[in-house]
Design a protein that fits this description.
The complex is a heterodimer.
Chain A (H helix, E strand, L loop, with lengths): L1 H19 L7 H13 L9 H33 L12 H14 L5 H27 L3 H25 L5 H10 L7 H20 L1 H7 L3 H6 L4 H23 L5 H13 L3 H25 L7 H19 L9
Chain B lengths: L1 E11 L2 E11 L3 E7 L5 H8 L7 E6 L2 E2 L5 H7 E4 L11 H6 L14 H13 L15 H14 L4 E5 L7 H18 L2 E5 L3 H7 L2 E6 L2 E6 L1 H4 L2 H8 L3 E7 L2 E6 L1
Parallel strand pairs in B: 3-8, 3-9, 6-7, 7-8
Antiparallel strand pairs in B: 1-2, 1-4, 4-5, 9-10, 11-12
Helix pairs in contact in B: 4-5, 5-6
Classes of the chains: A mainly alpha, B alpha/beta.
Chain lengths: ~325, ~260
């Protein structure tokens, strides 16, 4: 119980801490009066202090980091259940590769509107997963192994095309743009981006939360789940579509952010056990906390913001190695 | 209770696994399916559980064709205890048993207090309530099999399907598990269909034995009628001689 209380407390404390710190530190006590005056209409936005303006710059960024972390971590956990494999991450079906390819095409086509870039990336990500699903069902009907194999095929294809586009790209403008987009980050996130992305991610998280009881059954295997009364095909489709939409929405806004979807579910299982009715909501919260913490590090560690994909890997990879070496089979079992 | 009429099934064309199967099963009866590997015993269980669709024939569960029932409706009446006892994730015994309540839960599968009470009642019946918070994967094979039986019990079925329930168990655990199933069958008026590889166990466990040979039911009847030297030798393709040791026990020697 105390572990849950600790996580709930972090959910409030970490975002508040993250809002306050940065290259320009702000203090809540100083801005309280400004906020009250703004709400009462006593001062205009242009008359507000710098603290308030920075606060409103950081709020969408932190909100998006919470959503993205929660979305990626919960999608990772859901995919690990569906594929009955604790080493699965949310990009197993090719969504990351597809989204990156989409973004690269948009950059090469000189798309200036950021919405168009995000929409192209999202569409390509969804299309890649659709192709994976069609390839798997076309070849043998319905099998999770085939789905993973098809995902590898589509990912490889998208990665090859992405490499080709990088090779063809202008090395001074387009190539850096593609590379920086792929490395990911929250620097471009404002209220508009947050409002567009929030409904998709929140709805996805709500669906995953409501149907979390079924995840336990699916992780036993298709046949066993069906014999316990679950419509396996329907729930597979529901979870894959929901996970894909969440990951597609996050990647199209922030670029690829690795390791969260793999490492956070494991940390959650270590702390709260395997029962997904408890561990899924906890993985959402821990994912959000972890992402906000990493994002805070990216903008405070050096004078120039470090792409978030680098830090998640730098922290996630050693931690995962620690899990593999020192905590084998805790929360999962080798078959 | 359960009626199987002219059931034919094949995974691929021209490769018939089950051919023209007819069975009538009543409550409080234990039926055992015997046959060589690949004779279609487990396939028949999966068809009865609604997991595979037969090419021909019908299965009636309380006079309703199961082809028109959803997996949830079937699972409310039929519980299948699988052979597989290894799972990639470490659930507690309580979680495992509680999963049996899924067909009776709401659309989101959230268990109620009543479901928890039934899960603990099932654990009490198999005398494993003290194991509730232990990890399933850390149990012995016999204990795992008992937990899966508790899960089936928690499912409140009318028909219990057992796929080789004694395959991983030593003699005392086989005795314990199968006697428990006999007790529960009488208590809950179950119809039990079990796939076994041990005719000597079928002799004292079953009310009726059905032998599958090349996709067809070759012999059907009481254990005394079916488990004869000639029948067993024909089904398993090796010479078998049975020796009666006392009235209700039999030992089988392979020559």
């Amino acid at each position: 119980m105390w572990k849950k209380i600790f996580v709930y407390s972090l959910c409030f404390l970490v975002p508040i801490f993250s809002i306050c710190i940065g290259r320009y530190s702000i203090h809540f006590m100083n801005i309280y009066e400004d906020i009250v005056n703004l709400l009462q209409g006593k001062i205009l936005w242009s008359q507000a202090s710098v603290d308030i303006k920075i606060l409103f710059y950081r709020i969408p960024r932190i909100g998006m980091a919470m959503l993205v972390g929660a979305g990626l971590a919960s999608s990772g956990m859901v995919y690990q259940c569906l594929f009955r494999n604790p080493l699965v991450s949310p990009d197993i079906l090719g969504i990351s590769s597809g989204a990156c390819l989409g973004a690269a095409i948009a950059i090469l086509c000189n798309v200036k509107n950021p919405w168009m870039l995000q929409l192209t990336s999202f569409s390509f990500g969804i299309f890649a997963v659709f192709l994976t699903y069609r390839l798997a069902t076309y070849s043998q009907g319905h099998s999770t192994i085939l789905l993973v194999m098809a995902g590898i095929v589509i990912s490889s294809l998208c990665n090859a095309l992405l490499s080709l586009l990088k090779y063809l790209a202008d090395p001074f403008q387009e190539l850096p743009a593609i590379i920086f987009w792929i490395m990911g980050g929250f620097h471009q996130i404002g209220f508009q981006e947050l409002f567009i992305c929030t409904p998709t991610i929140l709805l996805g998280l709500l669906i995953l939360y409501l149907f979390r009881h079924q995840l336990n059954l699916l992780s036993l295997g298709d046949k066993e789940a069906q014999s316990l009364g679950l419509n396996v095909r329907t729930f597979h489709l529901l979870f894959i579509c929901t996970g894909t939409c969440i990951v597609g929405a996050t990647i199209s806004m922030t670029g690829t952010i690795g390791w969260i979807g793999l490492v956070i579910p494991h940390i959650t299982r270590l702390l709260f056990g395997t029962d997904h009715t408890t561990s899924l909501p906890m993985t959402m919260l821990l994912g959000g906390i972890f992402m906000v913490s990493i994002d805070t590090l990216t903008r405070t560690m050096s004078s120039q913001e470090i792409p978030i994909g680098i830090l998640t890997s730098l922290i996630g990879a050693p931690f995962f190695a620690y899990l593999l070496v020192l905590q084998p089979e805790k929360g999962w079992k080798q078959c | 209770m359960l009626k199987i009429e002219n059931l034919t099934f094949s995974y691929k064309e021209h490769q018939t696994i089950l051919n023209n199967i007819n069975l009538h099963l009543h409550s409080r009866e234990i039926h055992v399916l015997l046959g060589k590997n690949g004779s279609g015993k487990s396939t028949l269980l999966q068809i009865i559980a609604g997991m595979l669709q037969p090419q021909q024939g019908k299965i009636f569960l309380e006079d309703k064709d199961i082809a028109f029932l959803s997996p949830r409706q079937i699972a409310q009446k039929i519980a299948l205890v699988h052979q597989n006892m290894n799972y990639p994730f470490n659930y507690t015994v309580e979680n495992m048993v509680l999963m049996g309540r899924t067909p009776h839960c709401n659309i989101f599968g959230a268990p109620t207090k009543k479901d928890y009470a039934l899960a603990y009642q099932a654990l009490e019946q198999i005398q494993m309530q003290s194991y509730a918070k232990q990890n399933y994967q850390e149990l012995s094979s016999g204990e795992k099999q008992l937990v899966l039986l508790a899960r089936a019990l928690c499912q409140s079925p009318k028909i219990l399907l057992l796929d080789e329930p004694n395959s991983h168990l030593d003699l005392p655990n086989q005795w314990k598990l199968l006697n428990l199933i006999i007790e529960l069958t009488h208590e809950y008026h179950w119809t039990v269909i079990a796939v076994l590889h041990t005719p000597e166990v079928a002799y004292w466990f079953a009310h009726k034995v059905h032998t599958l040979f090349q996709g067809e039911i070759l012999y059907s009847g009481s254990p005394e009628q079916v488990l004869t030297d000639g029948n067993l030798s024909q089904i398993y393709g090796i010479p078998i001689q049975t020796h009666s040791i006392c009235q209700n026990h039999i030992a089988i020697t392979i020559l």
